[in-house]
Amino acid sequence: MGILSQPIGASHMMVVGAVMFVAGVVCMATKRNALGVLMGVELVLNGANINFVALGSDLLRGDTPYRLGLEGQFVSLFVIVLAAAEAAVALAITLNFYNNHATVDVDRADELKG
Amino acid sequence: MFELIERLQHNTLQVSLPGFQPELAICATIVLLLLGRMLPFTRWIDTLWIALGGTLVALYLARPWQHLAVGTDVAATPLFDGMLQLDTFTIYFRGVLLLFVALFLIFSRLSGIPDREDAVDIYALVLGSTLGMMLMASANHLFVVFMGIEMASVPSYALAGVLKGRRISSEAALKYAIFGAGTAGVMLYGISLLAGALGTLHLPTMVNQLADMPEAEFAMRQTVLLSGGLMLMVGLAFKLSAVPFHFWCPDVFEGAPAEVDAFLSVASKAAALALLVRVAIGFGHVPTSSVAAVDRPTSAVVRTVAFAAQPAVDAPVAAKAADDKAETPATVPVPLAKSRRFMVGLISLLAAVTATFGNLAAYSQTNLKRLLAYSTIAHAGYMMMPVAAALAVVGRDPELARESISAICFYIGTYLFMNLGAFAVVAFVRNETRSEEIRDYAGMIRRSPGLVVCFGIILVSLLGLPPMSGFAAKLLVFKSLVTDPQLYTLLIIGGLNTVLSLVYYLRVVKVMTIDAEPQDRVLPSFSMLTPGGVFITLMTIPVAGLGIWWDPLNVLAQQAVRQLFS
To answer: Cβ separation of A44 and B143 shorter than 8 Å?
Structure first.
């Protein structure tokens, strides 16, 4: 019965990661509020993080020559920190946009075009 | 266990940190700039000198003149257990970036964008971004690829919005930040897929895994590898401003001050190209030297130690026979050949579309910064072409592949002066006329002949007419495309594009020289003897000079690539 009948492994975790990734991309593409778009970015980053943690786990991966090992864990740690830094900058920029335009609607950012 | 720690200590203190000195110098400068605010005496010291001093110290520590000299034999060394690769290519790009930042700091002071309040912030952001770009140029591990792109991008978002009260500036920053964050997320997900399919993030190990993969295994993983590769290219294309991920570029260039545009168009592009070269080599060429085999990443060692009970199954990582020089179609493993073909196709397509779109979109522009933004996009297209060429011939002749990559190095070297000069003109004219519209340049030759002559030379060079340096750069790029029949289409597209770009560059020259002066106001007269004028002249001299006497830069470019594909 494929994936449903197997014991929990990396592929199950990667399904969760893929769902988060797709949710994030859809969120980025459809939300008109800049904060909503940034939330989509967080979802995408954390979807990738789940992949990294799952692929790095020797317990989940089992005995395969394509194990990622500790690299997976340390990448996800760095990404968590980096996502926080990026969110801080992006929120500051959104606030600056709000100060100038009195809105955070990304569709209103239409003065530059051509 | 102790052996591991000892090895790590030796590796970090004796090998990695000495090779990382320029980056450390930049880090120290950033800390000094930020902490300097707390000390009372910094009110009397111009922070420009701290930033400029730090950059020059970093440039001194990088010693490009020493390592790139003909006849020296510096070994390519992996730093931090293969996270970074220190070779002449890294050193060349470090040199270009640091030289550019030093010139940029002087230029931004002359044009007066950083005022007394903001100067520290701007310098810290610029240096922080430069640090990320230096990591990009030396990346040897997909995680460093991601970190480098993020470290270079996040400060750039803030730089784009550095003029706080202006509506379009805040809009540019918002677009840049949201677009950049989105593409970075997609790229990270792609990297996670590649990591899952190949079991490592270390580029040389990845290509070894790919080459040693049994065909049945590869067929199973092909889809994952393909989608991972495409998503990785999304992040790279964003940094390169390649079509279809170029939307941010014209908007950011119009909204941000011309100084920031100069930084983004040269430094960011140079780093992105170096990164593209690294990734392309990483997935298209199996290193034969000890780089991959002897110095395996620590994590792999840690893993082997921690799970010593299990047999070490990751043996395919180990050394591959040194049969690269005589590689024939029969000996190339199928997965590697497919990976190469995929990348040649993808990069050629991106390059062709980017160059054509950039040139076509530049036609209808009325704002000079926007026109230069599209010109930047088109140039990114030209500069990507040799990467495709290198991958197409690497199996047959690594020497030809090296030659192609050296065309990129040369191009970047000339591009630095051309674009810095062009944006310097835009910035100084803006200071005089408060306008960046092309029509406000009408008839400028009557009042400021020196400026117009310099700008004309720069534009003709961007266009690629002899005897300017842009011609030499384009010639080398197109020469690299003659090497393989599958690149001829790309060559034709590149040639046609050069003709296309003729119109809009020369239109600006025509407006400046032939069009009548506006009746309603007096044009400013810009003297070439002011500091700004001297700066523009200093940028124009290499633009013209490197077109006539291009041997020195070409030799440097040749030296820069000599350790690639080995």
So the answer is: no
B513 CB burial (10 A radius; 0-12, 13-18, 19+): middle
Report the distance separating Cα B423 and Cα B429, nearest Å: 10
pTM of the full structure:
0.92
Residue type, B133: M
HSE-CB of B516 using CA atoms within 13 angstroms: 4
The C-alpha atoms of residue B151 and residue B156 are separated, in whole angstroms, by 9
Chain A contact present for B212, CB below 8 A: no
Mean pLDDT of B452-463: 94
The backbone region for B63, taken as left when phi is positive above 0, alpha when psi lies in -120 to 50, beta otherwise, is left
Give A4→chain B minimum CA distance, Å. Answer: 20
Min distance A9 CA to chain B CA atoms (Å):
13
- Domain range annotation of chain B: 2-560
- Give residues with Cβ within 8 angstroms of B18, minimum separation 6: none
Instruction: Give dist(CA B529, CA B541) in Å, integer.
Output: 15
DSSP calls for B18-56: HHTHHHHHHHHHHHHHHHHTTSGGGGTS-HHHHHHHHHH
ipTM of the predicted assembly exceeds 0.85: yes
Q: Which domains does chain A have, with CATH numbers?
A: 9-104 (1.10.287.3510)
Could you identify the residue written with the tokens 């440039």?
B59
B527 to chain A, minimum CA–CA distance in Å? 32
CA pair distance B152, B147, nearest whole angstrom: 8
**CB neighbour class for B165 (10 Å; exposed up to 12, middle 13-18, buried from 19):** exposed
Give the closest of A47, A64, A72 to B195, CB-based.
A72
Q: Give the integer Cα–Cα distance in Å for B106 and B318.
A: 49
- Name which of A45, A92, A48 is nearest A72 in CA terms: A48
* Measured torsion, CA atoms of residues B161, B165, B169, B170, in degrees rounded to the nearest 10: 70
**How far apart are the C-alpha atoms of B518 and B441, rounded to whole Å?**
9
Mean predicted confidence (pLDDT) in B434-450: 88
Residue with tokens 């030809």: B400
Burial class from Cβ neighbours inside 10 Å (0-12, 13-18, 19+) for residue B153 reads: buried
Cβ neighbours for B10, distance < 8 A, ≥ 6 positions apart = none
C-alpha B426, offset from chain centre? 22
Tens-digit pLDDT profile for residues B282-298 = 998 888 754 444 444 44
